[in-house]
Write a structure and sequence with these properties.
It is built from nine helices and seven strands; from the N terminus they run ααβαβαββαβααβααβ. The chain is of the alpha/beta class.
Length: 248
């Protein structure tokens, strides 16, 4: 099954595609206190909700990059409906392939939940740091282990014990680059349950509405397997936080 079709179906009910509440998402936006015309880059922008909210609140200029044609379609439709005058461009391409016209040219750089683009959390921070102005903001979202993961969980999830660090290690990775840790937004179980549960709803509804789609058996097998993995292990093993750094 096409990866981006799978993601599109399973995230159909999501406004933002990570386990953060809309209230915390808005808190992040309020904390940034950007100015009109500030330049913002978001890699793996998803449906573009962050950039559009930043444009609505601060009148920023933005670039959103995502490899999924479904996400870019949704982001462009949302932009046309909510902020048609905003200076935002959405690009369908891999995040690692994006190169700014000039280094250190963005007031804010963001990557939420897609550190695989740069081979991990530290690599993501290094890449964003090179694109961020001195005094600018870097915002990354990254999972972390709440406890020593059960080997059975690692096998089910396809992780190793070193796939993620601890919450402290995620924060320290930015500080090791000379970034100043300004804030963290840590998700709770209700936010995780919402993020995971909306995927179950969306996939089961899709299967009922599209019984002739040949991808349905694989879709349901993957989502139901992920549901069992989450309820048995992941809910108490994997955390999520958004880390807000400032470049000196």
């Amino acid at each position: 099954m096409d990866t981006w079709k799978f993601f599109d179906i399973t995230h159909k009910e999501h406004v933002i595609c990570n386990p953060t509440s809309l209230e915390k998402f808005q808190r992040l936006i309020d904390l940034l206190r950007l100015s009109p015309g500030d330049r913002v880059l978001e890699l793996a922008t998803g449906k573009g909700e962050l950039l559009i909210r930043l444009a609505e609140q601060y009148q920023i200029n933005g670039v959103g990059v995502d490899i999924s044609p479904f996400c870019i379609r949704d982001a462009q439709a949302k932009l046309a409906a909510r902020a048609p005058q905003a200076q935002i461009t959405f690009l369908e391409m891999g995040g690692a392939d994006y190169q700014p016209d000039e280094p250190e040219s963005f007031d804010l750089t963001v990557c939420l939940g897609a550190s695989w683009i740069f081979d991990g959390h530290a690599g993501t921070l290094q890449a964003l740091e090179r694109m961020t102005k001195p005094g600018g903001w870097l915002v990354v979202g990254e999972p972390y282990f709440l406890q020593e993961p059960d080997p059975a969980y690692l096998e089910m999830a396809g992780f190793s014990a070193h796939t993620f660090g601890s919450h402290y290690e995620n924060a320290a990775a930015g500080q090791a680059l000379g970034l100043v840790l300004m804030y963290t937004l840590v998700s709770n179980l209700d936010e995780w349950d919402t993020y995971e549960g909306l995927q179950w709803v969306a996939s089961e509804n899709y299967a009922r509405e599209h019984p002739d789609d040949p991808d349905v058996p694989e879709l349901l097998a993957r989502v139901r397997g992920g549901r069992d993995e989450y309820l048995r292990y992941g809910r108490h093993t994997l955390g999520w936080a958004i880390y807000v750094f400032r470049k000196g």
